[in-house]
Amino acid sequence: MENLKLKLSGFLTLFYSLTYAQSINLRGPAQQLANEIKGIFPYVAVSIFIVVIFVNLGHFVKDNGDWKKGVTNIVIFAAILGAVVGLVNYVGSISV
Fold first, then answer.
1. What pLDDT score was predicted for residue 24?
2. Would you tell me how many other CB atoms lie within 10 Å of the CB of residue 81?
3. Contact 67/59 with Cβ under 8 angstroms?
4. What's the pLDDT at 18?
5. Which residues have CB under 8 Å from 65's CB, separation 6+?
6. Transmembrane ranges (predicted)?
7. 36: Cβ–Cβ under 8 A, 6 or more apart, which residues?
8. How far apart are alpha carbons 45 and 85 in whole angstroms?
């Protein structure tokens, strides 16, 4: 009898917590966070791109600089950035 009461109270607690979790509206705060990230992302991406260019600037200005390595690093960064932007846009376009 004691075991049955314990199982029943555990089931009711779990059921209540699940119903309470479903009543929380997370769509609004998630949408606000997504809008803030969409507003900030271009500035962050451009500043990181400038840092990448400055880091690779040594490949261009040295006497024995390797132009191919510098350009390759910048192109790889631009490709990764493009993939991230595409992924963010795809995920943002999915409706639940």
1. 66
2. 15
3. yes
4. 62
5. 58, 59
6. 39-58, 70-91
7. none
8. 10
Residues in Cβ contact with 17 at an 8 Å cutoff, skipping those fewer than 6 apart: none
Q: What pLDDT score was predicted for residue 79?
A: 93
Per-position DSSP letters for 15-61, written without gaps between them: HHHHHHHHTS--HHHHHHHHHHHHHHHHHHHHHHHHHHHHHHHHHHH
- 56 and 70 Cβ atoms separated by less than 8 Å: yes
Please give the Cα distance from 95 to 74 (Å, whole number).
34
Could you list the mean pLDDT of each consecutive 10-residue stretch along the chain, which spans 96 residues? 75 68 67 82 86 83 80 88 86 68
Distance CA 47, CA 39 (A): 14
